[in-house]
Amino acid sequence: MSEANLALAKRWFEEVWNKSRRDAIDEMLAPHALLHEGGSSMEGPAGFKPFFDRMHSAFSEIHVTVEDAVAQGDKVCVRWSCSLRHTGDGFGIGATGRRATISGMTLVRIEGGRFVEGWQNWDMLGLMQMLQETPMAPTYVAASA
Description:
This protein has helices spanning 2-18, 23-28, 44-58, 124-131, and strands spanning 29-37, 40-43, 59-72, 75-86, 99-111, 114-122. The protein is α+β, with helices and mostly antiparallel strands and 145 residues long.
């Protein structure tokens, strides 16, 4: 089962993101699935599709590379990187044409060949900094002695 789950997780990134197949969301995401990102959650394809649409209205040339993936039982954890070009204003910032590369990790739970729960963390702050006209420099706080 772990191999089938691993293949499903990799297929998600290929079909949904690399091929921009919106219909693949319905194929792989259960209607009652809960997706957690930061402090918010989305339910099922109806909850996920607005995020998918917003990403595609802001970015083109989206390509996700699965860097590493581990499956155990009904869960799969994927470490990924993504390159994209900022060509729209779907995130409230006018298109810059800039390319960006981000990374993230996704953990999913699978039942009956579909995702039923997922947790995602990705470098949204890094992405927003790459899109700024004057990118912010990293801030380091020196430890006091």
